[in-house]
Structures are given as C-alpha cells and as structure tokens.
Amino acid sequence: MKAAQTGKGSIVQVEKGKPKGKCRKWKLVVSLGRDARTGKYPQKARAFHDTYTQAQKALAEFVAEINGGAVVRCRNYSRKLERHYRKGKGGLAGRESNRWNDS
C-alpha cells in the first residue's frame, strides 16, 4: 500500500537548449510517496505543451488529481470560458446574452 503524496511536484524542461521563456514542452512530475514494501519513491509523470506559467497551473491540478483521486477541471474548457466572457465584455456573449437578457 502506498503512502499519501505529500510533495508539490516539479516541472522539468524538456527542450534543454531553450531559455525558460521560449520553452513550450514540459514534464510534470509528482512523487507518490514512499512505498513501504519496496522502500522506493514511485512517481507519476505527464507531458505538457504550453508556457511555464500554464505548466505551473497544470501541475497544481495534477497534484490535486493524484491526491484527491478526481479530475479537477479541464484547462481547455476554462480557457474557452474565459474567451466567451471576454467577448461579451464581462457578461454572456452572443446568443446566450440575448437568451438570458430576454427573460
């Protein structure tokens, strides 16, 4: 049986020759804690393609997913939702704004 994960995880730069600001390929690594039977520290890893700032957010979601056993939220969905609200200048955009405002 594995122990509870206690670390925050880490972000490893995959494109070694590039500065951090230009790199778009990252590896998210989270330790699963010490395995009592073997004494080793198994890890989970996930590839990520975007900016370092987005990789930090994805790492937090990945850690929460591993700790809680549930998926937090899809990053692409949240980006689409943000764009959707920006188009409507803080409110709903397009047909949705008409549908909600007509009520």
Structural features, described:
With 103 residues, the chain is an alpha+beta fold. The chain is built from three helices and three strands. The protein has a three-stranded antiparallel beta sheet with strand order 1-2-3, with helices on one face. The model has no long low-confidence stretch (mean pLDDT 77).
Tally of contiguous helical segments: 3
Shape field:
flat
Largest sheet: 3 strands, antiparallel
Q: Provide the structure class.
A: alpha+beta
How many extended strands?
A: 3
The arrangement of helices and strands along the chain is EEEHHH
What are the segments in which pLDDT stays under 50 over at least 5 consecutive residues? none
What is the strand arrangement across the widest sheet?
1-2-3
> Over all CA atoms, what is the radius of gyration?
19 Å
- Percent of residues in β-strands: 15-25%
Compute the separation of the termini in Å: 55 Å
Roughly what percent helix? 25-40%
Mean pLDDT: 77
In short:
With 103 residues, the chain is of the alpha+beta class. The mean pLDDT is 77.
List keywords for this structure.
alpha+beta, 3-stranded antiparallel beta sheet, 37% helix, 3 strands, 103 residues, 3 helices
